[in-house]
Each structure stands twice: as structure tokens, then as C-alpha cells.
């Protein structure tokens, strides 16, 4: 197995409820290291750019509005096969379908306010990381 990186967002529903520490504890318990992190208030343009792949989908406008509704915490995570490792600890997109002990099962409010975002591939992780971080900000 290789040490790789993935991208994470702790979403506005989690920052509003002040549970970023709980999310980070679950990430670290899963064997992932947080090698870059910052708290941001996304602009509409940033959110639209980040989620541009979903632009044609019916939920795009609601997603953008949700993501700009409060601060987020963007992160770079590092570990063995980081993308699948993080996706496993995140749980299914719909918290009702997520496994016990996952972030979404334990902490999410709904399918829309599901606490975290994570990259779905190594290629997208690289793109998403570069969207928010310069190389000098990643200190592993």
C-alpha cells in the first residue's frame, strides 16, 4: 500500500455545531494524518467553481447555497491509500445508509447536511487539493 493524499471538507453543518474536533478525531483514529487545514468562508464563486462538475444537476444551486451558509474547514489528509480510507470513515452519502461508527452515521444531520466531503479518486484529490492549497501549505 502507498502513502497518498486526499481532500476533505468539514461542511457548514458541522462547523455550526462546533464538532470539527469530533470529525478530526474520527479521521485520525482511522489512521489518517491531517497535513494541511484551514477554516474558510467560501464565496459563491469558490463554491460554484469547486462543485462545477455538478452544475447541470438539479441540486447544484442548493449545494452552493449550503456550502456558503457558514464556515468550512478544508483539509489535506495523508495515509495508506488515503482516498478509500477516508471514504470508508466518512460513510455513505446518505447517513441513513452509512455504517455504524462512520462520520456520517454518527454526526450527519441529513443527506444534504452530511458533515463532510471527500475526494472520490486520487486524480480528483489532486485537483481538489490544488484548488485550496499551495504546496508550501502542506506540511506532512
UniProtKB/TrEMBL annotation:
Cofactor requirements of the protein: Mg(2+)
Key word Thylakoid present: no
Cellular-component GO terms for this entry: cytoplasm
A GO BP annotation: UTP biosynthetic process
Residues engaged in binding ATP: 11, 59, 87, 93, 104, 114
Active site (record annotation): 117
UniProtKB keywords: ATP-binding, Cytoplasm, Kinase, Magnesium, Metal-binding, Nucleotide metabolism, Nucleotide-binding, Phosphoprotein, Transferase
Catalytically driven reaction(s): a ribonucleoside 5'-diphosphate + ATP = a ribonucleoside 5'-triphosphate + ADP; a 2'-deoxyribonucleoside 5'-diphosphate + ATP = a 2'-deoxyribonucleoside 5'-triphosphate + ADP
InterPro entries assigned: NDK-like_dom, NDK-like_dom_sf, Nucleoside_diP_kinase
Self-association and partners: Homotetramer.
Coiled coil: none
Nucleoside diphosphate kinase-like domain mapped to chain residues: 3-140
Record Gene3D superfamilies: Nucleoside diphosphate kinase-like domain (3.30.70.141)
Family annotation (CDD domains): NDPk_I
Localization: Cytoplasm
A GO molecular-function annotation: ATP binding
Name under which the protein is recorded: Nucleoside diphosphate kinase
Family label: Belongs to the NDK family.
Record EC number: 2.7.4.6
Gene that this sequence comes from: ndk
Functional summary from the UniProt entry: Major role in the synthesis of nucleoside triphosphates other than ATP. The ATP gamma phosphate is transferred to the NDP beta phosphate via a ping-pong mechanism, using a phosphorylated active-site intermediate.
Superkingdom of this protein's organism: Bacteria
Amino acid at each position: 500500500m502507498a502513502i497518498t493524499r486526499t481532500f476533505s471538507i468539514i461542511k457548514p453543518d458541522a462547523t455550526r455545531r462546533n464538532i470539527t474536533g469530533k470529525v478530526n478525531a474520527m479521521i485520525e483514529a482511522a489512521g489518517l494524518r491531517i497535513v494541511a487545514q484551514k477554516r474558510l468562508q467560501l464565496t459563491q464563486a469558490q463554491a460554484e467553481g469547486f462543485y462545477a462538475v455538478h452544475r447541470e444537476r438539479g441540486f447544484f444551486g442548493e449545494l452552493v447555497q449550503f456550502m456558503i451558509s457558514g464556515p468550512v474547514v478544508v483539509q489535506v489528509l495523508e495515509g495508506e491509500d488515503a482516498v478509500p480510507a477516508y471514504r470508508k470513515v466518512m460513510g455513505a452519502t446518505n447517513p441513513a445508509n452509512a455504517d455504524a461508527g462512520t462520520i456520517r452515521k454518527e454526526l450527519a444531520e441529513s443527506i444534504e447536511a452530511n458533515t463532510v466531503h471527500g475526494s472520490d479518486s486520487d486524480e480528483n484529490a489532486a485537483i481538489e487539493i490544488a484548488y485550496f492549497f499551495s504546496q508550501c501549505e502542506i506540511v506532512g
